[in-house]
Amino acid sequence: LLDLPGIIEGAKDGKGRGRQVIAVARTCNLILIVLDVLKPLGHKKIIENELEGFGIRLNSKPPNIGFKKKDKGGINLTATCPQSELDTETVKSILAEYKIHNADVTLRSDATADDLIDVVEGNRVYIPCIYVLNKIDQISIEELDIIYKVPHCVPISAHHRWNFDDLLEKIWDYLKLVRIYTKPKGQLPDYTSPVVLPYCKTTVEDFCMKIHKNLIKDFKYALVWGSSVKHNPQKVGKDHTLEDEDVIQIVKK
User: Fold this and answer.
1) Given its phi and psi angles, is residue 90 left (phi above 0), alpha (psi -120 to 50 degrees) or beta?
2) What is the mean pLDDT of the segment spanning 209-224?
3) Which of 26, 24, 30, 34 has its CA nearest to residue 175?
4) Nearest to 228 by CA among 241, 210, 219
5) Is 73 in the same domain as 198?
6) Which residue range(s) make up the domain with 84?
7) Which residue, 212, 216, 206, 208, is CA-closest to 177?
């Protein structure tokens, strides 16, 4: 958990050591942008612009575009659905700016020119973000109701410690973490310190690699209790996908 200095306008161009601050943000799993509830929109826009300029895309998924350079054959464009903005000429002119004259491009969704540039540059990161609106003790209940309807926002009061539970809940949702408990042989499961995995890497093999890479070499099978198996315990291999709060026991060769 990192508390980064505030970002000023022009940070992406190096003002106020902004490039170092934003470079750290690129490596995070989740970004919390803390805003003053009395003037949130102006500040929100400045911070978003600075992060976007550094290749960080907030609360969005990578564009569904296939892109592969080749040695010859020109630009080959395939679209699997109707396109409102991109056609062969536009794609060719965008790629020409990057001195790319031979490539296969597959558009699997209605993409924009910015989407294509993001894919070509290939250095974008897609990070979930929560906007934390502080100082809600200074606004009315009616204003608070409006704020609650804004997507990705959580109103809090740091001074009075209001609504921290809601923020914690939202952080947990956005991080999509999976807790796996361990069970030593002949003992009760250890519920005090789970092994935490990201939701995209939750196989038994990922679990073993998280503990130590030698564990997978000696792996024979695993016993799993929890929602990912049909009966408790179930004997599984290393490709089995674990779910939140499963209990696992590794059996070595």
Assistant:
1) alpha
2) 90
3) 30
4) 241
5) no
6) 65-121
7) 206
